[in-house]
Automatic annotation (TrEMBL):
Gene3D superfamilies in the cross-refs: Methylthiotransferase, N-terminal domain (3.40.50.12160), Nucleic acid-binding proteins (2.40.50.140), tm_1862 like domain (3.80.30.20)
Leader peptide range in chain numbering: none
SMART domains: Elp3 (SM00729)
Organism (species): Rubellimicrobium rubrum
This protein's name: Ribosomal protein uS12 methylthiotransferase RimO
Domain Radical SAM core: start-end pairs: 154-387
PANTHER family named among the record's database cross-references: RIBOSOMAL PROTEIN S12 METHYLTHIOTRANSFERASE RIMO, RIBOSOMAL PROTEIN US12 METHYLTHIOTRANSFERASE RIMO
Family: Belongs to the methylthiotransferase family. RimO subfamily.
Gene: rimO
Entry's EC annotation: 2.8.4.4
Binding site for [4Fe-4S] cluster 2: 168, 172, 175
């Protein structure tokens, strides 16, 4: 069991869970998946197709005939991590296909690693498959493979990410995701629900709904209804909530219609949890970011959500040290955080990213100032988290078991997403528990980010 300190990269997906065993002579493909949960879903789709064509899947380089590296290009530090992973794969394996967000800059990759076999952009599944076929021809067993593909899951069996759209229509100056992944393209609602039904039937207990802008879902489809399902986030959330699994909403922009989701939480259809990327609170900083500059109005929205659903848990991410951020602007952010009392908070230090319009802004903040502000921000966020968790002591709640080892069971409450939020630990009476179990506990102890409890 491990405690849950704040993460410098609160956007990261969980580590891969791969348990394939290749049969003799079966071609094997390794996968390295970097970046966010949306990239993890892309990796799952690629591997699902490959498995149906007769390939086995390897979690490392050495046992594979070729390796796919699914890259991240969100920050320059993420780009450096991607280049390092590509270089390691080339050194360890030799046959490397690169895909993902950084693949939108092929010259950047081939300039550093000219030996890669192919470079494809994000969600270009067919091109990835073509590159793999060229490097390692498929050798399917007609009695085992060439069947309808069963979804490859890179997460534990009891939870799964459910991507409902690609791309984004926002033009935030610090972000190049729309340049890499394009404008919003929503999946038809009936297709999302069908995938969710299949996941729940396979034993998934929690659906984590993700996209670049979840609350804009269906805008490009004009919220059309098809096969009994309307492409609007409120309708989709209600449809998903009817399946009996936990439904957790990520990356929700605070549009006015988000308030229509809150009653679904009081009805128990959707978890009382919203992941909303506020990014900052000072109106001038938000304007320089090219984001809505109505932090005071956002506080009113938060108060309205809590009045409807008092148990709602709010998670957000922020950027400190954005170009032009003054000490007064940063102090406004701290004051706003005091008033907002968000439950779960992550924070980035601003980084230039090639192609982002924010690079050209004047008055960049010195690295040591960014670090100092990050520390002050996280100190305040930690104090808020600790105080809020202390109020849970003595209460009873339902938790989902993630892992069980000799020391105890690691669980999550309805207010905790995997990897990025806290845990609830059961260190006595955990015998017989297994991942995916839902159990009721009484909270006995609280820390800065985690809880401890006993089964009831």
């Amino acid at each position: 069991m491990t405690l849950n300190p704040p993460n410098l990269r609160p956007d990261l997906a969980p580590k891969l869970k791969i348990a394939d065993v290749a049969r003799p002579g079966q071609p094997t493909i390794g996968m390295v998946s970097l970046g966010c949960p949306k990239a993890l879903v892309d990796s799952e789709r690629i591997l699902t197709r490959l498995r149906a064509e007769g390939y086995a899947i390897s979690p490392d380089y050495s046992g594979a005939d070729a390796v796919i590296v699914n890259t991240c290009g969100f920050l320059d530090s993420a780009k450096a991590e991607s280049l390092e992973a590509i270089g390691e794969a080339i050194a360890q394996n030799g046959k490397v296909v690169v895909t993902g967000c950084l693949g939108a800059e092929p010259e950047y990759i081939t300039g550093a690693h000219p030996k890669v076999l192919a470079v494809t952009g994000p969600h270009q599944y067919e091109q990835v498959l073509d590159a793999v076929h060229a490097a390692v021809p498929p050798s399917p067993n007609p009695f085992i493979d060439l069947l309808p593909a069963q979804q490859v899951s890179l997460t534990p069996r009891h939870y799964s990410y459910l991507k409902i759209s690609e791309g984004c229509n926002h033009k935030c100056k610090f972000c190049i995701i729309p340049d890499m992944r394009g404008r919003l393209v929503s999946r038809p609602a009936f297709a999302v629900v069908k995938e969710a039904e299949r996941l729940v039937a396979a034993g998934v207990k929690e659906l984590l709904v993700i996209s670049q802008d979840t609350s804009a879902y269906g805008v490009d489809l004009k919220h059309a209804e098809e096969r009994g399902h309307r492409a609007h986030i409120t309708n989709l959330a209600r449809d998903l909530g009817s399946l009996g699994a936990w439904v957790r909403l990520h990356y929700v922009y605070p549009y006015p219609h988000v308030r229509d989701l809150i009653p679904l939480m009081t009805e128990g259809l959707v978890l009382p949890y919203l992941d909303i990327p506020f990014q900052h609170a000072h109106p001038d900083t938000l304007r320089r970011m090219a984001r809505p500059a109505a932090a005071a109005k956002t506080l009113d929205e938060i108060a309205a959500w809590r009045s409807i659903c008092p148990e709602i848990v709010l998670r957000s991410t922020f950027i400190v040290g954005y170009p032009g951020e003054t000490e007064a602007e940063f102090e406004t952010l701290l004051d706003w955080l005091d008033e907002a009392q968000l439950d779960r908070v992550g924070c980035f230090q601003y980084e230039d990213v090639k192609g982002a319009r924010s690079n050209a802004l004047p008055d960049h903040v010195a690295p040591e100032v960014k670090q100092e502000r990050w520390e002050r921000f996280m100190e305040k966020a930690q104090a808020i988290s600790e105080a809020k968790l202390a109020t849970k002591v003595g209460t009873r709640m339902e938790v989902l078991v993630d892992e069980v080892d000799e020391d105890g069971a690691t669980c999550r409450t309805k207010g905790d997403a995997p990897q990025i939020d806290g845990n609830l630990f059961i260190d006595e009476g955990f015998e017989g528990l297994k991942p995916g179990d839902l159990v009721t506990v009484e909270v006995e102890e609280a820390g800065e980010y985690d809880l401890w409890g006993a089964r009831v």
